[in-house]
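REQUEST ID: PR-0412
SUBMITTED BY: lab tech R.K.
PRIORITY: routine
TASK: structure prediction, single protein chain
INPUT:
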Amino acid sequence: MRLRGGIAAAVVVLVAVSGCTTETTGSSGSERTTGPRESSTGSAALAALDSLSVKKRASTTGYSRDRFGSAWADTDSNGCDTRDDILKRDLKDVKFTDGSCKVASGVLSPDPYSAEDVTFARGRSLVDIDHLVALSDAWQKGAQDWDPSKRIALANDPLNLLAVGASPNRSKGDGDTSTWLPSNKPYRCTYVAAQVAVKQKYELWVTTEEKAAMKEVLSTCPDQALPSGGNPTKAPDRFHAR
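STATUS: complete
OUTPUT:
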């Protein structure tokens, strides 16, 4: 879903038609890919959408953030919490408080939701990490019946996470495609394809209205590739949730 070398010039490679890019930049030699990785099979998001189950939205009864484990658990065991992993992946000009884990500052250039540049500074809430499929939405579309380890995995899966501007993210809330889309229209196909990928990977369903809204977006880009990758759908046993 949106992954972040010595050469002097930056090289930008456009990835299919998804709007994701891979960049080699700066002096560190590191590669950064904006957004989820696309499937090497080239399977189209529109076809994947048709594979999703369609059901009515279930109740929010019993939902709380705690049902998905503690926030930003290091489920990939790389020594950095999930939030910092995504900031490192999605921001440019990243600086750390120490070492290479805790991100102190960087630039979201651009914010995929608004197409504007947003500066990140630790302790200031101008950049959020969005769950592309909101946890409350997931709860209402299958996750309430899961084993807790699967909910923890979803909450920390890079495929479902994206650094975005705080303002548009908070306007989204727990909306699905039928109630909210990024104001940055060129990004909408990538955004919807990522939601489809997450719902397919975790076997979440969509509502009739949601599927229609997704299809309306993806019909404008019928060859839109489906993102893939991320973490396993079961978190390590050391993590727990209610």
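NOTES: The longest helix spans residues 188-202.
REVIEWED BY: pending
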